């Protein structure tokens, strides 16, 4: 009788222990649809600003259940466009003064850490590589699950200090005498990634 009670107690312990173990979700990779995704930029100078687009080349987002856990994307730097369609500006941005597209055809971002700040928001930290130089950046992002099963990840304001990537043209911090031709060190990106399984 004592043996039966002990066996029953062990069985109950195993049952209740397994009942309260959190389920383990297998990471799921979603492929970025580059046609539905977008990347826009804004660069500012003392006398005004310029803005435009760059095409994404590829990317993926990794989720554990509904929580973002990793991912990456690659940017085709040869596709830099100015919203005002200035061929002169586009050519200068592709030149060595800025992104050196002939030598550095792509830039890339790889997620390294995610700190959830709400049900659908997170601070994303990762490695951004431009012109072969890699630096860590952090920015807020929002995740939206769509009715068709796809997911949209957006980051409205990603601030990048270009001088950390060797882009020093008309930087006041590096060239104090540049005067009113100064271009601000920071530029901004707005990222929208649409991905599906």
TrEMBL record:
Residues 29-196 form the Lipid/polyisoprenoid-binding YceI-like domain. Keywords: Signal. Pfam families: YceI. The keyword Ion transport does not apply. Residues 1-21 form the signal peptide. It comes from Pedobacter ginsengisoli. This is Lipid-binding protein. SUPFAM superfamilies: YceI-like. SMART domains: YceI. It comes from the Bacteria.
């Amino acid at each position: 009788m004592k043996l039966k009670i002990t066996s029953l107690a062990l069985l109950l312990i195993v049952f209740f222990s397994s009942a309260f173990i959190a389920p383990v979700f297998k990471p799921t990779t979603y492929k970025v649809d580059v046609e539905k995704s977008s990347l826009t930029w804004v660069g500012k100078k003392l006398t005004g600003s310029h803005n435009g687009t760059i095409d994404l080349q590829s990317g993926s987002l990794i989720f554990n259940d509904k929580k973002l856990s990793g991912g990456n994307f690659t940017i085709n730097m040869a596709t830099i466009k100015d919203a005002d369609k200035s061929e002169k500006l586009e050519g200068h941005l592709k030149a060595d003064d800025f992104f050196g597209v002939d030598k550095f055809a792509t830039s890339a971002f790889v997620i390294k850490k995610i700190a959830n700040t709400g049900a659908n928001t997170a601070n994303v930290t990762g490695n951004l590589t431009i012109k072969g130089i890699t630096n860590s950046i952090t920015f807020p992002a929002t995740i939206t699950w769509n009715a068709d099963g796809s997911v949209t990840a957006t980051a409205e304001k990603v601030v990048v200090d270009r001088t950390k990537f060797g882009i020093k043209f008309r930087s006041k911090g590096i060239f104090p005498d540049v005067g009113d031709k100064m271009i601000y060190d920071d530029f901004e990106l707005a990222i929208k990634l649409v991905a599906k399984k």
